[in-house]
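call fold(seq) -> tokens
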Amino acid sequence: MALLAPKPKNGEQAVPKQLDGQNGETGYDELAFHGPFSRPRPVSELEDDDDTPDAAQLSDTIKLRLFSARMRAVEAHALAHVADTDDDLSDIIKLRLANARMKAVQAHQKRFS
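ret:
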């Protein structure tokens, strides 16, 4: 699968688009990197619904997206509950961090003001 290709120089032929080994009339617009995803329903609603597919019937793409979402949620939860470790830092490091933050804020204000 070729997603990035250099621009052809004068007199050279362009690199053909390749998707899944096909050389037909396919294009990059057929790639779906992000699609809509409906809001999940609570488990109590899912138990009452008989036409809900089992996890084994889900496609690999949906399983991958669910796994990715779970990993991001676990990571966000873990980062939100990390203990504050500022007490372990020396005064010099705290001062350098404060100076770096001030410089970053000043640069941001200067750029966007």
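The two ends are 44 Å apart (CA to CA).
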